[in-house]
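A reminder from the course coordinator: this example appears on the midterm review sheet, so study it carefully.

Given structure:
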């Protein structure tokens, strides 16, 4: 049976590190990291993500500033709010929870965020710096995956990493991070998507297989090499009448059968999700330090 890579346990451990770091910042520099959380509409998944992020902030001592609006909030109002947050010295990070309602241009909004406060790492300035291996905010989910591998002593250098999914928030940035000529990277990466031919032949060559698809049971046992490390990014709601809320969360990987073949695997929930939040906390602390000129 595969080793379970618990993102929840690692994220809890990292929270203790962040807590100490923030206490020190407070005592020595009188700086308290502040994160603005912007949520528009009532998408249930977004509401629950925002709640988890705010809870994690409170646990480590980051002050989160809530900005919640109805679905009919206008794009120009949002752009004005972002401009105000960009100029607010108590705010070190700005998080705009996606997806935004259809009448708001997501690109316009993300590009309006000061790159120095872009703790999600979605601004093109940060994306460009990530690509050339510069110092920047890395997007939280791929960065969390890298940390989960590194802190579990899973060698990345020289390994073949196959990623299924090429989204701008997971697949593409993860590929960029893992191909860098840096410690915790130096992998050979293959990106797959819906137009990839013979995908099973490719996935079977993966030392590390990452599924970021958004469809349950996409990765089955026959797609996995014996002893591979399998990272499941997917978060899918499937109907489950035995649960009070009527559904349960599953990943993109058929966990039961793949865990018999893999050497290590992430669970859903409790795998990549908590690591994503952990890297958001990390980025917010880094933003506050940079703002205050703390090395
Ligand atoms: P996305 O933007 O919908 O992208 C999905 C990708 O998967 C696309 O590139 C698509 O290919 C590819 N794909 C879909 N079906 C496929 C198939 N049968 N074979 C091969 N490729 C296939 O999704 P995303 O935003 O990256 O999210 C993916 C999943 O991760 C979702 O379940 C999401 O909820 C979850 N997620 C979790 C976290 C976390 O913190 N745990 C964070 C972000 C996302 P094409 O490009 O060709 O369409």
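Designed residues:
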């Amino acid at each position: 049976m595969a080793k379970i890579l618990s993102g929840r346990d690692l994220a809890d451990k990292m929270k203790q590190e962040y807590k100490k770091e923030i206490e020190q910042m407070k005592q020595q520099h009188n700086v308290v990291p502040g994160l603005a959380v912007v949520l528009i509409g009532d998408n249930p998944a977004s509401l629950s993500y925002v709640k988890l992020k705010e809870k994690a902030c409170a646990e480590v001592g980051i002050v989160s500033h809530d900005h919640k609006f109805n679905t009919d909030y206008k794009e120009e109002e949002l752009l004005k709010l972002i401009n105000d947050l960009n100029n607010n010295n108590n705010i070190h990070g700005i998080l705009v929870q996606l997806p935004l309602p259809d009448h708001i241009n997501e690109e316009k909004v993300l590009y309006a965020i000061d790159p120095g406060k872009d703790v999600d790492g979605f601004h093109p300035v940060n994306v460009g710096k990530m690509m050339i291996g510069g110092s920047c905010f890395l997007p939280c989910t791929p960065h969390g995956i890298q940390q989960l591998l590194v802190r579990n002593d899973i060698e990345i250098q020289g390994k073949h990493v196959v990623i299924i999914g090429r989204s701008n928030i997971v697949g593409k940035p993860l590929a960029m991070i893992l191909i860098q000529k840096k410690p915790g990277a130096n992998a050979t990466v293959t990106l797959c998507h819906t137009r990839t031919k013979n995908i099973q032949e490719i996935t079977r060559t993966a030392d590390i297989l990452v599924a970021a698809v958004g469809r349950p049971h996409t990765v089955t046992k026959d797609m996995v090499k014996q002893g591979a490390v399998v990272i499941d990014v997917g978060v899918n709601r499937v109907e489950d009448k035995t649960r009070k809320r009527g559904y349960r969360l599953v990943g993109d990987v058929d966990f039961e059968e793949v865990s018999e073949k893999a050497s290590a695997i992430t669970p859903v929930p409790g795998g990549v999700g908590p690591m994503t939040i952990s890297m958001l906390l990390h980025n917010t602390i880094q933003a506050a330090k940079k703002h205050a000129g703390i090395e």
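The pocket of NAP is lined by residues 141, 164-167, 169-171, 192-195, 199, 212-215, 218, 233-236, 272-273, 276 (CB under 6 Å). DSSP finds ten helices and eleven strands in the chain.
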